[in-house]
């Protein structure tokens, strides 16, 4: 069963995504910020990480920078899910498998996840 890590600070969105993905047959773990996500991805390498950008403690940009700097986890693909566009940084800097805007369209999310996993 493919494993997905959902990294999202909004508890309602995080729980809704986890619930919907589990109903589609995925194993799902969650993290509320990038720091927690780094710890999880080091021990349980998922087939994909769904990553919010705007989070406390460690945001998505910082998470991705740290992830790409660690050879053991750098290859784990990321799908960015964000409602906020950072005008000072370009999404291509994240080297993400896909970028999806909030509110999330589940059909597009599932298609992106299935492409990666």
User: How far apart, in Å, are the first and last alpha carbons?
Assistant: 10 Å
Give unreliable regions as ranges: none
Q: What is the overall number of helices?
A: 4
Question: Could you give a short account of the major beta sheet?
Answer: 5 strands, parallel
What is the CATH third-level topology name? Rossmann fold
Output the radius of gyration: 13 Å
Q: In one word, what is the shape?
A: globular
Strand order within the widest beta sheet: 2-1-3-4-5
CATH class bucket: Alpha Beta
CATH superfamily: Response regulator
pLDDT averaged over residues? 90
How many individual domains? 1
Please write the string of helix (H) and strand (E) elements.
EHEHEHEEH
Number of strands: 5
Strand content: 15-25%
Helix content: 25-40%
Provide the structure class: alpha/beta
Q: Based on the structure given, which CATH architecture is correct? A: 3-Layer(aba) Sandwich
Provide key terms for this protein.
117 residues, alpha/beta, Rossmann fold, 5-stranded parallel sheet
Describe the structure.
The protein contains four helices and five strands. By secondary structure, the chain is of the alpha/beta class. The protein has a single domain (3-116), classed as Rossmann fold (3-Layer(aba) Sandwich). Helix 2 packs parallel to helix 3. The longest helix is centred in the N-terminal third of the chain and has 13 residues, at 11-23. The protein starts with a strand and ends with a helix.
